[in-house]
Amino acid sequence: MNRLDTSIIISTYNSTKWLEKVLHGYNNQTYRLFEIVIADDGSNQETSDLIKQLQKEVFYPIVHVWHEDNGFQKSQILNKAINHCSTPYIIMSDGDCIPRTDFVEIHVKHRKLGWFLSGGYFMLPMNISNLITIEDIYKGLCFNLKWLKSNGLKSSFKNNKLTAKGFKSWFLNRITPTNASWNGHNVSGWKKDIIAVNGFDERMQYGGQDRELGERLFNHGLKSQQIRYSSICVHLDHPRGYKTKKSIDKNLEIRRIVKSEKRAWTDFGIINSETD
Hints:
The chain has helices spanning 16-26, 45-55, 74-84, 103-110, 126-131, 134-139, 145-150, 160-163, 166-175, 191-196, 209-219, 245-260; strands at residues 6-12, 34-40, 62-66, 89-94, 97-99, 115-118, 122-123, 187-190, 223-226, 233-235. With 276 residues, it is an alpha/beta fold.
């Protein structure tokens, strides 16, 4: 039996309709030596029931990491999920991002010591998000530009994310003005590096907590590689009721200090998080 070498952390909160689609997307991957660790920020029983059902259906192991609902505490549950990862390499994404069939393969192909990988996402409107079926995922239709346009997707330069291959994806990765940052929807790095900076800062709620981790990784000496046009996931639409000016302003101040003082370590991270 081949040994697992990659852990994929998927964050979720009371969104079983989207999570089910995402987990079927991972059941359709070309690269299979991975486990899924669900970082569940306090969902109700419906999410637990879905995971138990899918554990019987998918080829990969699923670890469900949960804590009680105490508002938006994604940083806390991500730290707990990191502790539960059993492999040396971690990919992070969200429970509303369906991975293309080569999503994991691309991350594994490009990983290297001293670096983290920064991917992107393709945002779908709500009508198409609702329209996608499990069968559409296995057929790859939710990544098919012709199918998406037939269901109302508008023309945009961003559509290149769905069609770029080979030299074109390499070239677009090189020229994109978007920073190769640590982001919650499509990013990967070595567990030892994440542990070395003490994971996520648990003072931070919605707004930039992912990028703050990346900024400390840079201060720790890591570099990042852009795979925005290579490793693709489609982002299902949803409301964002947890976004507040207070949390964003607080997080911006934490990030300002990290940058100005070149901090690599947080005193409010993994070593302070409860472990199960």
